[in-house]
Amino acid sequence: MSTGIEAVLKRIGVPKGSFYHYFDSKEAFGQAVLENYGAYFARKLDRWLLQDDVPPLQRLRDFVEDAKVGMAKYEFRRGCLVGNLGQEVAILPESFRTLLEATLCDWQRRLAACLWLAREHGQLAADAACEELAAFFWIGWEGAVQRARMVRNSTPLDIFLEGFLAGLPRQ
Question: Residues 83-105: pLDDT tens digits?
């Protein structure tokens, strides 16, 4: 929020007129960035969580392993745009709060579908509350990503995943 659009445009070499041809404001640009990131990450989740030949809970483990590789690639200096913006929500326009929540809810639905499959396959108890478990995962995951950036290693991601899996209701 503190960075002016002029500084961004100058850095990437885009004329101000070109920017305003596509976006009405810095807020509209930020929303487009967030929407594109949300769609990119949803495709990533689908790539891992929809693998029919992999047991559902292993799919979640595979997603986390991929996330660890991605974070290590950038020396744990980059995290999740949604998590980063979520930490700044108090100073962002109201539209961002709504968009951030919608993005997280989309990711939760994707994970909940995987957890429902785990339930159907007998990996979870028949009364497992898959939607609530998916919400719990994303609440904790964003904190684990933040902590991994802070300590610059994947230990918080491992601790979170193992704790999440250990707490799942089993048959």
Answer: 989 998 999 999 999 999 999 99
Tokens of residue 71, six digits = 């974070």
- Single-letter amino acid code for the residue at 128: A
Given a contact cutoff of 8 angstroms between Cβ atoms, the answer to whether 106 and 38 are in contact is: yes
Task: Say how far apart CA 94 and CA 139 lie, in whole Å.
Answer: 20
Torsion from C-alpha of 94, 99, 100, 102, nearest 10 degrees? 130
- CA–CA distance, 74 with 113 (Å, rounded to integer): 30
CA distance 80 to 39: 13
Residue that wins the pLDDT comparison between 80 and 106: 106
Residues in the chain: 171
Which pTM does this prediction carry?
0.90
